[in-house]
Amino acid sequence: DAWDIELVPESDTLPEDVIATIIGSRRPVLFVEGDGGSLDSALYRRAYTDFTVLPVGGCEQVIQTVATFAARPDLHRVGSAGLVDADGRTTEEATFLETKGVYRLPVSEIENVLLLPAVFLALAASLKFSVHEAQAKLAALQSIVYAQATQQIDGICLRYTKRRVDAQMKKIGLSATDITALDAEFKHGVASVDPVSIFNEVKNKVSSAITSQDYATVLLYYDNKGLLNEAAKQLGYQRKSLEEFVGRTLRSEENSVLHSALVDELPAVTPRP
Questions:
Q1: What is the distance between the alpha carbons of residues 74 and 20, in angstroms, rounded to a whole number?
Q2: Which of 52, 146, 170, 183 sits a CA distance of 20 to 30 A from 69?
C-alpha cells in the first residue's frame, strides 16, 4: 500500500537505464557480456536466479561496470558481480579478476557451454534420447570438434595471440614526463611483447589437448560460435530450433536436469558489496 521513493543517482559512466534497474532491484546484479539475446539471457537468468542479470556489451564493459559499481557507495544496498567469456585470459588473470568480482566462463563462447559433456548429455536427456544414444552423439560431437580444431588450429592460435598482445600492450605504463623518456618507455614495453612465443605456446597447448582428447581445454581455447550448429545437428535440430527448446526448457522446468547441469558447469558467483 506504500511506495519507497528515492532519487536515481547520476553517473557519467553508468547508463541511466542500468542505474534505474539496479536501484529497482531487490537482488544482487550480475553484469554479463552480450546484448540480451534470447539464448544468452535464458542461460544466464536460469543459472543465476538469485541475481538481476544485466547485459552491458563486451568484456571490457563488464569489467569496467563492475569496477564503477564498486566505487559507488550509493548503489551498495545490492551487491554486484561480472561474468565474461574465457577470451584468451590466463589462469592468473582469471584469478585476479575474481578478486574484483568478475568471473571467467569455462568456454571461449557462452553458447559452447551447451557442448560441455554434462550439459550436452542433460540436453539430450531432455530431448528423450536414451543414455546410450546420448553418449554416442556426444562422442560424435567431440570427434567433430577435435577435427575442426585441428584444421583451424593456426587461426585459433592467431586470434588468441592477438588478444594476448592487445592485453599486454594495454599494460604498458606510460608515466614519462618528457618525449625521450616516453620513447624509451614505449620501446621497452613493446620489446617485452613476443607474439611468436605466445603463438607457439598456445599452439602446443591446443595440439596437446586435441591429441589427449582433453575436450574441456579445447573448448576453453576454441572461439567458434558455430560449434553449436554441430551440437544441434547431432540432436536432429536446426540451431535456432535448439536454442528455442533450451530457452523453453530452462524457463519451464524449475528443477530440470538441464538446469542442474548448467549450474554445475558455470562459475559459482559471489556478489561483492
A1: 13
A2: 170
Burial letters for 144-161: b for 16+ Cβ neighbours within 10 Å, e otherwise? ebbebbeebbeebbbbbb
Cell of 170: 594495454
Output the CA torsion 60→63→66→67 (10° steps): -100
Q: CA 84 to CA 67: how far, in whole Å?
A: 14
Rounded Cα distance between 46 and 142, Å, is 26
Whether 245 contacts 127, CB under 8 Å? yes
pLDDT along the chain (273 residues), means of 10: 58 64 77 81 88 89 88 72 88 91 93 96 96 98 98 97 90 87 91 95 97 97 95 96 92 80 94 82
Contacts 24+ apart (CB under 8 A), 150-157: 150/210, 152/224, 153/203, 153/206, 153/207, 153/210, 154/203, 156/206, 156/221, 156/222, 156/223, 156/224, 157/199, 157/202, 157/203, 157/206
Reported pTM: 0.87
Q: In this structure, are residues 102 and 66 in contact, taking their beta carbons and an 8 Å threshold?
A: yes
Alpha-carbon gap, residue 151 to 158, rounded angstroms: 13
